[in-house]
Specification:
single chain, two-stranded parallel sheet, 362 residues, Rossmann fold, alpha/beta
Length: 362
């Protein structure tokens, strides 16, 4: 469809692509999309942690071999890259939860900062790699609770340990890009990507809004919310991943000017409070789904987040295709069909096909 830019199968066909965190929510969608594009992907993740990861690894197994590896183990990471010899590295592995970062800040910084350092060093030592995309977060900015969306050149910060760890990751990636990538005997283009609050089917993480709601609704229980007025840039996983893939293509084809930080968020002004997400999701779910506000005290989390993605629109031709209602509709449908027995891989593949065809154009 005119005006839509999809990942290019001609570019990806036969490309050796390493995806860290492939057993996670975004990583599993990315693995299936890469396979559909004809790439030769390899996944690198922790050993299976729970039933959801086991299901993902089950459907990825035939199309995306995986290596059980802790990115905190630098030698193991280097060995995996040496054996696979990827051309492109897409780094999604992380400790991704704000509240868990308060409970275990050491693990959070070890995984998100030192794990990224281990991977960057392995990439530096592996001559096959030409480009690398590192996923951080919209929370890496110094949050001023103001009404404007954050741009890539706004100051980094982080009140909570998770946000601070991702700001550190941004600084680390920039340092490696400036210190090493430009001085090697072959160019390595390193970019970071900052998405919003990503939703979609197959996310079963604890202490995350949509999967918590799905579990409560399926059990016939109301979901208790801490801060229903907190506003976030909600977006479907396919919009974020499309941006990552488009950027990786351009980096690999030699446009070194794009080795930088990139926002991939929903349209300006499309941010919504948590209450609006639950009201919409409960309506779509039906069966008396409901939620309550318990006002429980918890550790600090930002009240408002928003991203300005104008840079990606201008230079990559990327833009979000699923608005707030469409993203939640697709997500609710995914979970309900999965409950009725449709395999996760089939649901993801169908959504990717529809996305590429332009069916979700907003």
């Amino acid at each position: 469809m005119a005006g839509l830019v999809n990942p290019d199968p001609d570019f990806w066909y036969g490309r050796r692509v390493l995806v860290t965190g492939h057993s996670g929510f975004k990583g599993s969608w990315l693995g299936l999309w890469l396979a559909r594009l004809g790439a030769v992907p390899l996944g690198l993740s922790l050993p299976t942690q729970d039933e959801a990861e086991g299901e993902r690894l089950g459907f990825l197994g035939s199309i995306m071999p995986g290596v059980a590896c802790d990115i905190r183990d630098g030698q193991a990471v280097q060995a995996a890259l040496k054996q696979f010899a990827p051309e492109i590295v897409l780094h999604l592995a992380a400790q991704p939860l704000v509240r868990r970062s308060y409970r275990d800040p050491h693990l959070t910084f070890e995984t998100n900062v030192m794990g990224t350092l281990n991977l960057l060093e392995a990439v530096r030592l592996q001559p096959s790699v030409r480009s690398m995309v590192i996923a951080t977060t919209d929370k890496c900015y110094e949050n001023r609770e103001w009404p404007w969306a954050y741009r890539e050149n706004d100051p980094l910060g982080g009140h909570d340990p998770y946000s601070a760890s991702k700001a550190c990751t941004e600084i680390l990636a920039a340092s490696w890009r400036n210190s090493f990538a430009a001085s090697l005997d072959r160019p390595i283009a390193i970019a970071t990507v900052r998405a919003g609050n990503v939703i979609g089917g197959g996310d079963w993480a604890q202490d995350r809004l949509v999967p918590d709601a799905v579990r409560a609704f399926a059990a016939g229980q109301p979901l208790a919310l801490r801060n229903p007025q907190a506003t976030r840039p909600w977006q479907h996983v396919l919009d974020a991943l499309c941006g990552y893939l488009l950027l990786a293509e351009r980096l690999h084809t030699g446009d070194g000017r794009l080795a930088d930080a990139w926002n991939f968020g929903p349209d300006s002004g499309a941010e919504r409070p948590v209450a609006a997400v639950l009201e919409t999701l409960a309506r779509l779910w039906g069966d008396g789904a409901s939620w309550t506000s318990d006002g429980a005290f918890g550790p600090h989390e930002a009240n408002r987040l928003a991203l300005d993605s104008g840079k990606a629109r201008q230079h990559l031709g990327w833009r979000p295709r699923l608005d707030f209602e469409a993203a939640l509709t697709l997500t609710a449908c995914w979970y309900q069909r999965h409950r009725l027995g449709t395999p996760a891989a089939d649901l993801i593949a169908a959504d990717i096909e529809s996305y590429e065809s332009g069916a979700f154009r907003s």
